[in-house]
Design a protein that fits this description.
Number of domains: 1
Protein name: Immunity protein 63 domain-containing protein
InterPro entries: Imm63
Shape: globular
Structural class: alpha+beta
Low-confidence stretches: none
Pfam family, one: Imm63
Oligomer: single chain
Helix content: 40-55%
Strand content: 15-25%
Strand order of the largest sheet: 1-2-3
Radius of gyration: 15 Å
Distance between the termini: 45 Å
Order of helices and strands: HEEEHHH
Length: 123
């Protein structure tokens, strides 16, 4: 199995565990949608383009890191949709989203939830 095939299988398993309708894949859809490139080494690059111009790109040689980055993107989307449908009186929507994303990440790997929590604003 190639590194890309292994990564694809792991991403699909994560998608299924989340019950997500999509997962970060390997195709550039532009419009700011993130995708993964598997380079020699292997090196994994998560990147996104908007109107043909790069929005962001980050690289790692660690499989766990690219899985976290991909899961973070998907769970953010899921959490935001959930927060829109479940507003909490007196709470900014972003905090509802943060909390829901942490719950989703925790279902995959508690370390990932803690990592996301550590990077959040507190107010």
């Amino acid at each position: 199995m190639t590194p890309k095939e292994d990564l694809a299988a792991r991403l699909e398993a994560l998608r299924q565990r989340l019950g997500a309708t999509w997962m970060v894949g390997f195709e550039n859809f532009d419009a700011g949608h993130p995708f993964i490139e598997v380079l020699e080494g292997p090196t994994y690059r998560l990147t996104a383009y908007e109107r043909g111009k790069p929005v962001f790109a980050k690289e790692t040689t660690k499989l766990d890191e690219i899985l976290y980055w991909a899961s973070y993107e998907v769970t953010w989307s899921m959490a935001y949709s959930w927060a829109v449908q479940h507003p909490v009186e007196g709470e900014e929507q972003r905090f509802t989203t943060f909390r829901r994303q942490e719950e989703l990440l925790n279902s995959l790997d508690p370390r990932w939830a803690e990592r996301a929590r550590a990077g959040r604003p507190t107010h």
